[in-house]
Every structure is written in structure tokens, then in C-alpha cells.
Amino acid sequence: MLTEYIDSTERAAEIIRMGGLVAFPTETVFGLGVDATNGDAVAKLFQAKGRPSNNPLIVHLDDGRHWARAAAELPTVAEALLDAFCPGPLTLVLPKRQIISDEVTAGLATVGVRIPDHPIARAILRTAAVPVAAPSANRSGRPSGTTWQAVSEDLDGRIDAIFTADSTTIGIESTVVDCSSTHPVVLRPGAITLEQLQQVVPQTREFGPVEERRRLVSGEPVNSPGILHPHYQPRAEVILVEVPPVGISVGVSAVSAFCGTEEFEGLHEFALAKIFGSLEDYAGGFYEFLREVDRRAFERVFVQTASEDGIGLALRDRQRRAAGT
Ligand code: AMP
Ligand code: MG
């Protein structure tokens, strides 16, 4: 397939309406959009990404008032979160509407709904006027694409079009909150923190991969299968470190890269190193750094774990999973 490189939101919407696959920017990472009501098109998307079919997709809408295009109901707590944080980097898991194809939700009775806060994404969604399922625009398991060039590396020739926009700003995926039962439960950390959610709905709880794995082993239903698959992994080995690796030998540093937030003596020995000035910058540039490590064929990358403040907690989650731990 020949991939079109486009900069027209009308063209993007047209391709989506015709059942095609279009990568476009959001404020978190680039998404790969497809008409969520078209089961055949959705099946093509899973194939293009090489995504396991039991990993549900998030449905994107242009406006929170249109929630009923994807969801069967909007529980009171979900309405409160929608009002407070949408448009924005928050995905609400809600009871699913019939019209959303079962391929999108991997057979679950719920659907993840998000209203991105990005002018290009919203214009495409508005013009397409259908619910758009959009996972991150990368080959499954790889770091998400935060530049159109990264998307092209993974998906050129496999999808219909790539929107050549600026790099994304937040750089890690949305916070996913299950609102389908009594209390909201955070299934995936993101830029919107648990504390922020609790300011609006104090009963909001955290429910991490550990609990999911326990359920999987005990045969209980899994809420968010996607968080169990390998994710965000470069080809290089990822080694997490709390403090910079001081005194590393020259042989090792020649084939190793480093990223973190702390300057240290010996930093210059790494052939590729990046110190981020803030946690926001670190989150914004992390995936692109991992990709650069692969482009330059480094054997390993030392990753200084982010502190747990604000977006740092979500970044830590991605770092841990990039390391496969
Ligand atoms: P990605 O599209 O790569 O950003 O991943 C989407 C994430 O949202 C995965 O972790 C999914 O498991 C999660 N997700 C999407 N839809 C649902 C749903 N209906 N219930 C629970 N989690 C969901
Ligand atoms: Mg993804």
C-alpha cells in the first residue's frame, strides 16, 4: 500500500469515512484512526499494528457532548470527570453502545472514550462525524510515535495516510479511568493524576497491573487487557537506574546511551546522552529518545527512573514497561 503524506484535515476525515487508516497528532501521542463503526476497517488496523486482538481500542470524539455516539450511558461520576478534564488526556471507560464494533472493544461490554485536546485531531473528528477508534500509531510493542517521522518508520506502506504535523506535547498516553462500576478506577496512569481525579471524585481508586495479573492468574475477568501486553520497548536493552551510572567503563559507554534528569560526572563518556530539564520534558521526549537509541543501533540504554511527582508516575510506568519488568 502506498502511504499518503497529508496536511489536510478534510482529506484525513475523508479517508477515515472510506474505511481507511490515518495517523494524526493528538496532545498525547500520534493516534492511528479508523471508523469505529466499521468492523472490517478496524480489523485492518489490528493487522497494520500487529496488535493482539484482545487489546481494546480507545474511541475518539470531537466533543464531550457527543458521548452518546460511543457510550450507552454516562454515569454521574463520569459526567463530573468529563466536565472537569475533557477535552484532554483522559479516557473514560463507559458502557458500550451497540454501534461500536466488537472488534474495537475486544468483545468487552465497555468502551474507552476520549476527547483529544488538539486542534488537528478535533478538526478531523468533527469532519469525519463518526466515532474514531485510535490506538497509538506504532507497531505493537514499540515505543509510541510522538513525531510523524516515528510513525512513518513503523507504519509507512501499512496504512493509508500520515498527517505531517508537529511533534506531540505531552508525549505519553492518556490516563484511563474505568467509570463503569460504582467508583472510578484508574487502569492506566497518565498526565491527569490520581490526585486531580480525586479532587473531582474523591472515591477514585488506583488499580494497577499487579491486580490485573492476579485476576488473570486466578481466572477472574480482566478489566483492561491492554496493560498486560509488552509495550514501549526499543530493540536496545533498557536498564532502569535510580541514580546515574557513575564510573562505567569506556567499552560499555561506547555502546550505551543514557537519559535522565541529573547531570553527573562521566556523562560525556556516553556516545548518546540526554538530560531533560523537567519531568514534563522527560515525558515529552522519552519515546523519541528510545527510538533514536535504536536508529543509532546502541546495545543498551540506561534510563534514570522519573520521580513520582505529577506526570512522573505515569512516566515511571512506561519506563518500567519499556524495560519489560
Ligand atoms: P493504546 O490504544 O495503545 O493507547 O491502548 C489503549 C489502552 O486503553 C489499553 O491499555 C486498553 O486496555 C485500554 N482500554 C481501551 N478500552 C478499554 C475498555 N473498554 N476497558 C478497559 N480498558 C480499555
Ligand atoms: Mg499503544
Describe the structure.
With 325 residues, the chain is of the alpha/beta class. The chain folds into 2 domains: 4-218, DHBP synthase; 237-322, Rossmann fold (3-Layer(aba) Sandwich), CATH 3.40.50.11030. The chain has 11 helices and 15 strands. It has helices spanning 9-17, 39-49, 76-85, 102-105, 119-128, 148-155, 194-200, 209-218, 250-254, 279-295, 312-322; strands spanning 4-6, 22-24, 31-35, 58-60, 90-95, 110-114, 132-133, 161-163, 175-178, 185-188, 205-206, 237-241, 256-260, 272-275, 300-304. An 11-stranded mixed sheet has the order 1-8-2-3-7-4-6-5-9-10-11, sandwiched between helices. A 4-stranded parallel sheet has the order 12-15-13-14. Helix 1 (9-17) packs across helix 5 (119-128). The longest helix has 17 residues, at 279-295. Bound molecules: adenosine monophosphate and magnesium ion (MG). The site of magnesium ion has 3 residues, from loops.
Q: What order do the helices and strands come in, and which of them pair?
A:
Elements: E1 4-6, H1 9-17, E2 22-24, E3 31-35, H2 39-49, E4 58-60, H3 76-85, E5 90-95, H4 102-105, E6 110-114, H5 119-128, E7 132-133, H6 148-155, E8 161-163, E9 175-178, E10 185-188, H7 194-200, E11 205-206, H8 209-218, E12 237-241, H9 250-254, E13 256-260, E14 272-275, H10 279-295, E15 300-304, H11 312-322
Parallel strand pairs: 1-8, 2-8, 4-6, 5-9, 10-11, 12-15, 13-14, 13-15
Antiparallel strand pairs: 2-3, 3-7, 4-7, 5-6, 9-10
Bound molecules: adenosine monophosphate and magnesium ion.
